[in-house]
Amino acid sequence: MESPYTMLHHLNPNSLKNILFLFNRVWKEHCFPSSWGEAIVILILKPGKVATDPLSYRPIALTSCFCKTFERMINTRLVYVLEKEKCISPLQSGFRKGRSTLDNLVFLESQIRDAFVRRNHLVSLFFDIEKAYDRTWRYGIIRNMYDFGLRGNLPLFIFNFLAVRYFHVRIGHSSSHKFIQDQGIPQGSVLRVPLFNMHMSSILHHLPSSVRGMLYVDDLQVSCQGSDMRLIKRQLQTTVNRLVKWCDQNVDTRYLLPRAAVSIFAENVTYTQILLYI
């Protein structure tokens, strides 16, 4: 039976030492408790949605209190290493200390102003990779950590943490049978965001040299400026093709498509739209 946080807060020093001993064994011996890989999913009705529609509910995953406590300890070390080794692109501003959406807005504004000063057009594409957390390629995360030179207990813990995940859905007092979660980063995980940020940052390395981009977690904005709209369109189509290829290898491409938008910033209003193919 899982221990609630209220119980953990009231443990005496000896009990806390025993928990720390357990955490150190998991860390050093690479033995990940099977119960830590299970989640209970409860459904929360979204405001203003129809209760009879399954898509009207937001799934919330409840995981082990012990595991999440240990995750917080690991997360402190993981974030420190990722930032120190520059494993996360400086153009990723999502959920990072001292960063916010304001960085993305200022970045876009500076591009627009620069284009107008040069009397150029600027075309921006905005992507929201829907359900990206749930469709992320797990072994891509491990590969990224290896490529960044991370060795030892940290990547081994992340591997064991992601390897085997199960969940069952609870509605009222009834629960479904177990389902295996064979892809994605577990919902409710403390490590979810830094692992995703690290993996997602690599998408910026696939942009053409004439195209600039910035991320806020899974929201991607790319821009290209120039005086010839046909050349801009060609560069952006190349960009889209590369993004689709990256998604083929790292997430499910279908979830790149539903939320994409194009904005044209130009003093000449001749161009009101641009057609790109995904």
From TrEMBL:
Per UniProt, what is one Pfam family of this protein?
Answer: RVT_1
Q: Which InterPro entries match?
A: RdDP_mobile_element, RT_dom
All copies of domain Reverse transcriptase, residue ranges: 25-276
What top-level branch of life does the organism fall under?
Answer: Eukaryota
- Keywords from the UniProt entry: Nucleotidyltransferase, RNA-directed DNA polymerase, Transferase
Which PROSITE patterns does the annotation name?
RT_POL
**What are the recorded GO MF terms, alphabetically?**
RNA-directed DNA polymerase activity
Name of protein:
Probable RNA-directed DNA polymerase from transposon BS
Q: Which organism is it from?
A: Trichonephila clavipes
